[in-house]
Structure formats: structure tokens, C-alpha cells
């Protein structure tokens, strides 16, 4: 028994230690944030945007939130800037996203959308791979994304002599007050044909890379690069004036996280936190653990049956069965009277006088042994006192 308890205690201790180690590793991983997609405000490595989120929150000038809910729940409005970072255009989710951004802008929000940077021209990237059998050579035409209301040009910037411009390139201001004259740019993607009412704010080698337009009571801003809002840029190429211009005169800044696949769902853990049931839940888990422990190793010691053969079923003899039957059917104060009636019915034939004398004796329910001795002397006067 003691060995079983020691083994179970060791197993529980090992399980708790392992669980604590896993929780610690998960905390470290989530603290770094590299489990989240690039340019998420929850990510703390160079590819995230957590520094910008925390800096805005610590400034106290604006209220900073993250959106994990469905777009239909987000109201927006004047004084709100929505940051949608690291988009990959050309997917089936473009149209709902454009509708969502336009709805926020119509209500007065300032919507800033940045594209995930591409550092290699597709034409040169395709040359590194073997052309599939029967395939056609890559097209030199730019990849249009017409659902966004403009075209994207991935052909890459060129210098004055027609040569390729190395990244990071320099984006030059084309319009807009309060913006730096030049900023670094790390994406080969630019906008192709730009039509009104879009206004060019920055261009690389004459190719627009940042656009702005008024939309309803708000505005839309689109950048082909997310680098300047990333954690890496906050450390190496911080552009405070540009960031202030992007945020604008906002009282509230919201980082959109559902575009990265991070959505809030009504799971059991979420509901427990929402309704303050974490402590009761942990208590129930502890009780369940104690119940499992008790079922595996009872707290009371087992009865020692000695050297009994485990193959033999231990039973009772007839006398023990009779005693058990009497204890269940006859009350202790009525035991002597019950015995007299049974003796009179079975063994008292021809002794009516003795039966009459016995029944006339006063019986004391508190002393059944004394009553038995008196009856025995009355029935067997020649045997004397019977002390059994």
C-alpha cells in the first residue's frame, strides 16, 4: 500500500512539473510573439508591430485597442484610426475587406492599409525555378488587382540609367504636409495606373508607393510596404513624423487582427474568463484529481486477511447464519420470551405445568442472562445452577 501511494505521488509530482514546464515555455513563446503571423501587433520580434502598439498606448494621447471580433461588430466613427497591416492582395478575402474599410471610412474613420513587402521581382524569382513541362514563360505584364480600385506593379524600380534600384530604396514625398521629405522603402511593389480621387504621397523612382483619398467623412491610405510600422523600423529607421501623420487626429487607434487569422471565439476558456469562473473551474479540476487519486489508492488501509488462500471464498456456517437471522428478526429485549415460545412449541410436549410456571416468571429485559438461569433452574431443578 505504501509503495502504491509513493508511486502515485511521484507520478502526480512529475505530471505537475511537466505541466509547469510546458506553461513556462508557452509563456516565453507568446511573450516573443513569433507564434503570430507577420505584422501582428501581438508579435514582439522584428516582423511584428507590437512596439508601435505599446508606444501609442503608453503615450496616453490616444486609446489603443486590438480588434479580434467580426467586422460586423466594429462601429468605427470620427476620431478612430484603423490600422490594417501586412495585407496580401489578390486573395478571395479582398472584396469583404474593401467593403469593411469603406464602411469605416464612410462613418468618419481613418483607415490605413499596408501591404506585406515583396523584396524580389517575380520575374527574377521565377528564373530561379525550373520551368514546368509544357509551361509558358512568365509574363512581363504587371499583376493587376482591380478589386482594390488600382493596379499593382511588381516589375521593380529602375534608376535614371535604367538599372535596377537596390533595396532599401528611397521614397520621395510627392505631396502632403507634415510628411518627411524622404523615407526608406523595402518593397518592389508599386501602384500602376493611379486615377482620381487617389493622391500620391510618396514615390520610388517615379512609381507611386503611398496613396491617400477622402472617402465619405473619413479617408483611406494605402502603402505597398509595412516595414516603417514594424518593430525593426521602430529600432533602426523610426519615422516619427510619418507615424504621426498616419495616425492623424485620432482619439482611438485600433489594430485589426482578424486579417491575420486571430479571431475571438466563444470557447470554454473565453467564457470562464468573461464570467469570472476561472477559480471555480480550477477548484472543480482539483476535486476531480482528488477523486481519481482516491479511486486509485483509497485513503483507508486495506483489511489484512492473513494467509487466506485467494482462491477460496470465505463463508459462514449455519450457527453464524442463525445468529445473524436472530439479530435481524428479534429485538434484544424480546429474545428470552421468543426462546420460551419456541421451546414450548417444539420441545415442551407433556410439560404444560413447566410452561405455565415459566410464563408466570417476571422477566427483566435488561438481564437476559439472569432470566435464562432462572428458567433453567425451574425446568431442571436437579442440575443446579447453570453458569454457561
Summarize the structure.
This protein is α/β, with parallel strands linked by helices. It has 12 helices and 11 strands.
Cross-sheet strand order for the largest sheet: 1-11-2-3-10-9-8-5-6
Radius of gyration: 45 Å
Question: What's the number of domains?
Answer: 3
Largest pleated sheet: 9 strands, mixed
Query: What is the CATH class designation of the largest domain?
Result: Alpha Beta
Quote the CATH topology of the largest domain: Rossmann fold
Low-confidence sequence ranges: 130-144
- Strand tally is 11
Q: What topology does this entry show?
A:
Blueprint: H1 2-32, H2 50-59, E1 63-67, E2 80-87, H3 94-106, E3 110-115, H4 122-127, E4 152-153, E5 169-173, E6 182-185, E7 190-191, E8 199-204, E9 207-215, E10 218-223, H5 231-236, H6 240-247, E11 252-256, H7 268-274, H8 278-296, H9 318-329, H10 335-346, H11 352-360, H12 368-379
Parallel strand pairs: 1-11, 2-3, 2-11, 3-10
Antiparallel strand pairs: 4-7, 5-6, 5-8, 8-9, 9-10
Overall description:
This protein is an alpha/beta fold and 388 residues long. The chain has three domains: 213 residues, Rossmann fold (3-Layer(aba) Sandwich); 34 residues; 66 residues, no CATH class. Strands 1-11-2-3-10-9-8-5-6 form a nine-stranded mixed beta sheet, sandwiched between helices. A two-stranded antiparallel ribbon has the order 4-7.
List keywords for this structure.
Rossmann fold, 3 domains, 15% strand, alpha/beta, rod-shaped, 12 helices
Amino acid at each position: 500500500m505504501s509503495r502504491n501511494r509513493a508511486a502515485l505521488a511521484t507520478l502526480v509530482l512529475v505530471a505537475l512539473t511537466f505541466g509547469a514546464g510546458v506553461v513556462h515555455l508557452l509563456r516565453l513563446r507568446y511573450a516573443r510573439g513569433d507564434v503570430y503571423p507577420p505584422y501582428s501587433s501581438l508579435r514582439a520580434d522584428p516582423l511584428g508591430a507590437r512596439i508601435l502598439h505599446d508606444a501609442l498606448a503608453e503615450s496616453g494621447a490616444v486609446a489603443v485597442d486590438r480588434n479580434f471580433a467580426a467586422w460586423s461588430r466594429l462601429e468605427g466613427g470620427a476620431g478612430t484610426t484603423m490600422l490594417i497591416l501586412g495585407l496580401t492582395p489578390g486573395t478571395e478575402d479582398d472584396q469583404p475587406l474593401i467593403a469593411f474599410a469603406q464602411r469605416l471610412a464612410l462613418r468618419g474613420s481613418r483607415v490605413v492599409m499596408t501591404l506585406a513587402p515583396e523584396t524580389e521581382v517575380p520575374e527574377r524569382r521565377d528564373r530561379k525555378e525550373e520551368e514546368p513541362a509544357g509551361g509558358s514563360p512568365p509574363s512581363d505584364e504587371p499583376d493587376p488587382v482591380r478589386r482594390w480600385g488600382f493596379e499593382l506593379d511588381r516589375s521593380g524600380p529602375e534608376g535614371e540609367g535604367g538599372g535596377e534600384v537596390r533595396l532599401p530604396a528611397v521614397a520621395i514625398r510627392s505631396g502632403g504636409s507634415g510628411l518627411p521629405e524622404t523615407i526608406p522603402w523595402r518593397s518592389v511593389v508599386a501602384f500602376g495606373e493611379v486615377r482620381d480621387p487617389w493622391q500620391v504621397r510618396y514615390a520610388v523612382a517615379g512609381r507611386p508607393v503611398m496613396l491617400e483619398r477622402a472617402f465619405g467623412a473619413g479617408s483611406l491610405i494605402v502603402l505597398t510596404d509595412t516595414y516603417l510600422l514594424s518593430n525593426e523600423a521602430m529600432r533602426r529607421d523610426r519615422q516619427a513624423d510619418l507615424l504621426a501623420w498616419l495616425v492623424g487626429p485620432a482619439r482611438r487607434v485600433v489594430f485589426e487582427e482578424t486579417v491575420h487569422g486571430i479571431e475571438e471565439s466563444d470557447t470554454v476558456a473565453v467564457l470562464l474568463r468573461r464570467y469570472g469562473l476561472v477559480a471555480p473551474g480550477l477548484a472543480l479540476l482539483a476535486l476531480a484529481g482528488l477523486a481519481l487519486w482516491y479511486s486509485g489508492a483509497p485513503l483507508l488501509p486495506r483489511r489484512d486477511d492473513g494467509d487466506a488462500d485467494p482462491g477460496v471464498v470465505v463463508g459462514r456456517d449455519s450457527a453464524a447464519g442463525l445468529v445473524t437471522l436472530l439479530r435481524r428478526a428479534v429485538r434484544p429485549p424480546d429474545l428470552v420470551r421468543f426462546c420460551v415460545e419456541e421451546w414450548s412449541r417444539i420441545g415442551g410436549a407433556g410439560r404444560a405445568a413447566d410452561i405455565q410456571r415459566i410464563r408466570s416468571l417476571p422477566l427483566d429485559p435488561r438481564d437476559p442472562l439472569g432470566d435464562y438461569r432462572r428458567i433453567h433452574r425451574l425446568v431442571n431443578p436437579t442440575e443446579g445452577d447453570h453458569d454457561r
